[in-house]
Write a structure and sequence with these properties.
Elements: E1 7-8, E2 30-34, E3 40-45, H1 46-49, E4 57-58, E5 60-65, E6 71-76, E7 87-89, E8 91-93, H2 101-113, E9 116-124, E10 128-132, E11 138-142, E12 145-151, E13 161-167, H3 169-178, H4 185-193
Length: 198
C-alpha cells in the first residue's frame, strides 16, 4: 500500500467504482442523545445539536493502521461544522439511530476515506470528552475508540477530509505531546490513553 503524505482531496464519484456504498437503511443526519450514564434519551438532527451548548451524544473515533505500521491522520475539511481544518485521527463520527457503532465505523471509513477496515478492535470503550473549537462550537460525546487496519487505498471525500498523511505512531505521539494545540482535542486525549502512541 502506498500513501503519499499530504494527499489532497479531490471530488469523489459516489458510485461503486470508488468502493463507496450509499446506505439507505440509516439516517446519518441524526445523532443519538445520551444521559449522563450513557443511556439513549432520544435523537436530534446533527446540525441542530452542535453549537455553544451541545448536549451529550454518541460518537466514535477510529485510528487506522496501514500494512507498514504507519497510522493515518487526516485534516478535517474546511467546510465541517465542528473543528474545520483541524488535524485528527483517521476519522470519527456519529452512529445513526438504530445503527451499531461498528457498522457506523465501517460506513464512515467508506464514506470519508473510501476504504474498508479489517481487524476492527474496540480499545477505549468508555472514552468521553468535551471540546470547544475556535468558533465556539462544542463537541460533547461518549465516544468509543477503535483501531483498525486499512484495506485499500484512500480516496478522500472532500466534504469530510481535506488532506491525509501517514506517520509512524511514535512520531505522531511525540508531535501530540509537543504541540497538542495543532491537533483535535479528542486525538490528544485518546493518544494519552493508548499504548500505540507511546
Amino acid at each position: 500500500m502506498t500513501i503519499v503524505d499530504g494527499q489532497h482531496a479531490e471530488p469523489v464519484d459516489s458510485g461503486t467504482s470508488t468502493g463507496r456504498l450509499d446506505l439507505v437503511s440509516v439516517d446519518p443526519a441524526r445523532v443519538v442523545l445520551l444521559d449522563d450514564h450513557g443511556n439513549p434519551t432520544g435523537t436530534a438532527e446533527k446540525v441542530s445539536v452542535h453549537g455553544a451548548d451541545t448536549p451529550l451524544h454518541l460518537g466514535f473515533s477510529c485510528h487506522v493502521l496501514l500494512d507498514d505500521g504507519r497510522v493515518l491522520v487526516t485534516r478535517r475539511a474546511l467546510s465541517k461544522l465542528t473543528f474545520p481544518g483541524v488535524w485528527t485521527n483517521a476519522f470519527c463520527g456519529h452512529p445513526a439511530p438504530d445503527e451499531s457503532v461498528p457498522d457506523a465505523v465501517s460506513r464512515h471509513a467508506r464514506d470519508e476515506l473510501g476504504i474498508r477496515l479489517a481487524d476492527l478492535e474496540l480499545v477505549l470503550p468508555d472514552f468521553r470528552y468535551r471540546a470547544v473549537d475556535a468558533g465556539g462550537v462544542v463537541e460533547y460525546e461518549i465516544c468509543p475508540v477503535y483501531v483498525a487496519r486499512a484495506v485499500g487505498e484512500p480516496v478522500l471525500n472532500p466534504a469530510e477530509v481535506a488532506e491525509v498523511a501517514a506517520v509512524r505512531p511514535a512520531e505522531l505521539g511525540a508531535a501530540l505531546r509537543s504541540t497538542p494545540w495543532a491537533f483535535s482535542a479528542w486525538l490528544v486525549e485518546q493518544a494519552n490513553l493508548m499504548p500505540l502512541y507511546a
